[in-house]
Hints:
By secondary structure, the protein is of the alpha/beta class. It has 17 helices and 14 strands. The chain has helices at 4-38, 41-62, 70-95, 106-138, 147-164, 179-206, 208-230, 248-269, 271-290, 348-357, 380-386, 399-407, 409-415, 431-436, 463-471, 490-502, 550-554; strands at 239-240, 245-246, 296-305, 310-318, 331-337, 340-344, 370-375, 391-396, 424-428, 442-448, 473-482, 507-515, 524-533, 565-566. Strand 3 and strand 4 (310-318) form a beta hairpin. Helix 3 packs antiparallel against helix 7, helix 4 crosses helix 6 and helix 6 (179-206) packs antiparallel against helix 7 (208-230). The chain starts with a helix and ends in a 23-residue tail after the last strand.
Amino acid sequence: MPNPSRTKTLTLLAITYVVSFCSFAYEFVYSELLTVMYGGTVTQYVITVGLYFFSLGIGSALSDELQGEAPSNFFRTEVYLAAVAPAGFMLVVGLNSVAIPETVPPELVWVVARLPAVAVGFLSGFELPLLTRMVERTDESGTLLPSSVVRIFERVHGVVLGVFAWFWSVERTTGDRSGLSVVLAMDYVGGLFGAIVYAKVLYPALGLVPTIFVLALLNCVAALVFVVRFSERPWGLFADERRGLVSRESGALLAVCLLLTAGYAGAVANHRQVDRSVTELYLEQQIESEYDRGAMDAEITSQWTTQYQHVVRYDRTWTGSGPNPHFSGKTEQCLRLGTAVQLCESWADSYHQGLVDVPMSMYENSPETNVLVVGGGDWIAIDHLRQYDVSVDHVDLDGEFMRHARNESFFSRWHDDAYQYDRLNTTVGDGYAYLQNTDESYDLVLLDIPGATDDDLLKLYSKEFYGSLRRHLEPDGTVVAWGYSQYGFPEHHKAYVNTVRAAGFDQFVPYWAWEDVDGDGETERVEQFYVLASGQRPEFPAPDSAEATDYVRTYSDRYRDLRWREIPRYRGVRVNSLFHPNYDILVDT
Length: 589
């Protein structure tokens, strides 16, 4: 016959696992959300996790005052957590989706954006002491776990102690594990699985917005299981332990918990629509912050999350209130990766023509010309290179995005199935690691990578990475990279230039891609690029000669002054390196 005390204890341990799972995962959600909103992966994760553990300790220290009515207080804590965590998430999104008056100090916004993480940590601090107290009260038989589980535990415990005995003085104990030790074990295991499931399942499959509702739903379910299993009152209500009566507050909280459970279940069931609505709310404000307020309307058409990035496709329509009336009423499709716009119809061609067609004027159009493309998972740069019959090695980290781009009409209109090019060798992997493991040398390296908008990309802007690129160049080989101009992003430009110079590049050619973007008959500068060289340097042919590419000949008047220059060195600006990053490289988009 089942032991009721043991059954209740096992239920409490299972609840411990679930609430710990949720608590840890909440902090990772907040860390990633703050990274998306404000940039700086390392900074946001370190500060958020630090604040979480600080507030966790404060909550735990104050929990002694709640022990007398542990069951009702634990239920309340779970309801509060289920309400506060998604509300805090939406608060952070809201701070970045409305125009905050300039009179509001940015330090105040910084503090407010991190209050949700503190609140979740503070409430989570109550959970473990309350659960431990209830486990100790519930376990009347002195046996927390079934005998079969205890035997396995003891065997593992014996092996671990045998190892520990080499380094510490160990005294073996007999009898059952204490309530605290078992609850702690379940808490730590739940936290570990919360981190793993968030990183490998929830974030890649659902994205940030649905994940916060999944976790809140788990908190609600844990609260309902707890109140049904441990309440001795009708409808699962806790009594006021001092009066022996059902409190109104307890009934109200149960009603709130049921409403939250139903709401979160609906949000999870319709997670795509919820994700789209919240993202669009944020995205519209971000686009308006990059242009004159009210200059365009945005409508998301699709979005998904890979292991490495959040991908958003949207239509943007110029309203006519912006600086250029020629855009009025024009709608175009755009692609956003993470925090930055990566591709729009109006400049997709000119960007890739600047990246590929300008530097290809320096090299023969033959299979003997060896080109490396780092990034470029949309295959568009590969399509441009295919026109020159060169041999291409291609490495990109995000295989899921590359597979999606193969057949998605938004991309295929530009890449024309370039992934089938017979002189193409594609590797799914990290560009830096690829260079460490290959003996190939290249005439031309094209860096088709995002701008440095967060810590994850700093490695691709480091002295070590560029030094590795230089070592894989032919004597007259070059590297071509998109770069921020010294006029629009002076601090980034200085840090970047000092970094590539420290990596061994001493000559460069800055140039722009050109196109009549708005159809007014005038060509505009679209994107800036740098050609980097060390040692021998190939020369650009005359822009109107037969050796020049079609694109260069089309804009021959713009490319007459292409010439090699010495890379400058800026005093007082630190080089960006792997183990000593210079955050001036990062640009807040």
